[in-house]
Design brief:
Layout: H1 2-22, E1 37-39, E2 43-49, E3 55-60, E4 64-69, E5 75-81, E6 86-94, E7 98-114, H2 116-119, H3 128-133, E8 137-144, E9 161-164, H4 166-170, H5 174-187, E10 191-197, H6 216-229, H7 234-249, H8 272-278, E11 288-292, H9 301-325, E12 336-339, E13 343-344, H10 358-372, E14 376-379, E15 385-386, H11 396-409, E16 421-428, E17 431-437, E18 443-445, E19 454-457, E20 464-465, E21 467-471, E22 474-478, E23 487-490, E24 502-504, E25 513-514
Parallel strand pairs: 1-7, 7-10, 7-11, 8-10, 11-12, 12-14, 13-15
Antiparallel strand pairs: 2-5, 3-4, 3-6, 6-7, 8-9, 16-17, 17-22, 18-24, 19-20, 19-23, 21-22, 23-25
Helix pairs in contact: 5-11, 9-10
């Protein structure tokens, strides 16, 4: 009898549960919501969840309508044709319930991702408060997720689309804001930015762990973290938290305690940032991406050297996966622009800095990626930065330089989009003649007087400051101390910003570069040196640096 009653209760419970599932509403991810910008002139991906086998119709009042059926897991996805820029429109999603998305615009959408300097808010940068106060751009829309990392892919994120107002602009990423505002002003169409920053994150966190396991450095990180996490005891961790909470409530410790989690759950573990920040927004329709990250991958020279491989891997994975998940609606080679690391630490004094200067090695790796991976670009930023602060306040030039890359390369504007790029050296007696492209209307120094940011060496590999002069589209360098020169390095330091740097007359700086191929690190002879973080003096206030004005 008891078994019979128990069985009846079990059946009743099952029916109630099934009834609840059957009445589940159609749901949408956060990125499909009021005020959204849909990428124009593609089959824009729209997706969500409903009951398995349920018919879902997505209709835009610009005359497009698509119906699909959810899969066995209750997931659905459609591709809705979008016209040329315009709006506002209404998007309706109909299943057992109806969701109405209002104030939808169609225009250009860009992903803006990276670590803390990508996230640094507009109100905290030079001229940011003034620019935020006048930022009434109803057709510039911002989607910014809260920081999230996870050991497993997340289906959704906590965010919403917000039209650009003085309040929303003030808390927006400064680099993203200046990039988007320039596009909005020049193109005169709606612009959407999907802003996904997470502070202190290595590039390994921004792509799936599985695609990186042939990289020895990533594999070592995974093995060490997994080993350390194998002894994690959740019961013991909860007890420790309870004891800490008691001490906190009694005023014996400051700061509310949190549950200690295993290291491979954290934001430093490969793949965990991707799972929380990128996975939930794919395959939303985008035109391209801008990226500001690399500080966390430049603690020492060996780590910085590995960035070349990892950055190329990330770019190729984002492109391939976005293209496939969008059924080809997002270009398989969409433009991807990245920020070369700015200047940091005390100003350069030696002609060439060595193992202590990991950031310049990272800059060189980025320069190589920009030349090796098609449809990429690099916003050179060595004339921005700070001698003390790791989060410099001069973000406006960086955002604008990203916008010039897009305006020329994506939108066909007849402008100069970059600084002088080294192409070739010719040795002529005791001189080396350096050739450049992207010189715009001509080469110039940052200030009057001779360029003093070049170093020269012979086969003995001893670097000396070079005498440098501009001749047409070339720079001629020499030194009385190097009668038989073989190589040149330019701006090869953590912080070359205070030297007389090379620019074109449009106001874009040249990237640091080297003409030699000498090893930057010999594991048999060299010892890795971590960057020495400067101490912040009491009362220190950052000041912007002088630089030529960008003339566009």
């Amino acid at each position: 009898m008891k078994k019979y009653i128990g069985l009846k209760l079990l059946v009743l419970w099952s029916l109630v549960t099934l009834s609840k599932v059957a009445s589940a509403d159609v749901k949408l991810p956060a990125i499909v919501s009021d005020h959204m910008i849909l990428q124009q002139q593609i089959g824009a991906p729209v997706w969500g969840w409903a009951d398995p086998g349920e018919a879902v119709t997505v209709e835009g009042n610009w005359g497009e309508k698509v119906t699909t059926t959810t899969d066995d897991n209750g997931k659905w996805k459609v591709f809705l044709k979008t016209p040329s820029h315009g709006g506002p429109y209404i998007l309706k999603i109909k299943g057992k319930n109806v969701i109405t998305i209002k104030n939808v615009m169609e225009g250009e959408v860009w992903l803006c991702a990276g670590q803390s300097n990508m996230g640094w808010r507009l109100s905290a940068v030079f001229q940011g408060a003034e620019d935020a106060a006048s930022a009434n751009y109803p057709n510039l829309r911002i989607f910014r997720s809260e920081r999230k990392h996870s050991h497993k892919p997340q289906e959704d994120c906590n965010a919403k689309w917000t039209p650009c107002t003085p309040n929303s602009a003030a808390t927006c990423s400064a680099v993203s804001f200046y990039f988007a505002r320039k596009l909005h002003q020049e193109l005169e169409i709606p612009i959407g930015i999907v802003v996904q920053p997470y502070a202190g994150t290595p590039i390994e966190g921004w792509m799936p762990k599985e695609i990186q396991m042939d990289d020895p450095r990533t594999r070592k990180i995974v093995e060490e973290m997994d080993k350390a996490s194998a002894t994690y005891d959740i019961t013991q961790a909860k007890k420790q938290l309870e004891r800490a909470m008691q001490r906190w409530k009694q005023g014996e410790r400051r700061g509310r305690p949190v549950l200690r989690t295993p290291g491979n759950w954290g934001h430093q573990y490969p793949g965990n940032i991707f799972n929380g920040m990128i996975y939930p927004i794919r395959p939303y329709g985008i035109r391209g991406a801008i990226w500001y990250q690399g500080e966390r991958n430049s603690k020492d020279v060996p780590q910085a050297l590995n960035f070349r491989r990892q950055l190329a891997l990330l770019i190729n994975y984002y492109r391939t996966s976005w293209h496939e998940l969008s059924s080809g609606n997002v270009a398989k080679d969409f433009p991807f622009y990245f920020t070369q690391l700015p200047s940091w630490t005390p100003a350069q004094e030696k002609p060439v800095e060595g193992l202590e200067a990991s950031w310049v090695v990272n800059r060189e790796m980025m320069r190589l990626v920009a030349s090796e991976v098609p449809n990429t670009g690099m916003a050179v930023s060595i004339d921005t930065g700070d001698t003390i602060a790791l989060h410099p306040k001069n973000k406006k030039p960086i955002g604008l330089r990203h916008s010039y890359l897009a305006l020329k390369q994506v939108y066909g504007k007849d402008i100069v989009d970059n600084g002088p790029r080294f192409t070739k050296q010719t040795i002529k007696g005791n001189q080396i003649i350096l050739e450049f492209n992207s010189i715009g209307s001509g080469l110039m120094g940052a200030k009057p007087g001779q360029l003093n940011s070049f170093a020269i060496a012979g086969n003995e590999r001893k670097w000396h400051w070079a005498t440098s002069c501009i001749k047409g589209s070339t720079v001629v360098v020499s030194s009385a101390e190097v009668p038989n020169p073989t190589a040149v390095r330019y701006a090869w330091a953590m912080n070359p910003s205070q030297r007389n740097l090379l620019y074109n007359r449009e106001g874009f700086p040249a990237s640091p570069f080297r003409t030699d191929n000498w090893p930057l690190f010999d594991p048999d002879k060299d010892r890795a040196v971590e960057v020495n973080k400067p101490q912040k003096p009491e009362g220190y206030q950052p000041k912007d640096w002088a630089r030529p004005k960008m003339m566009q």
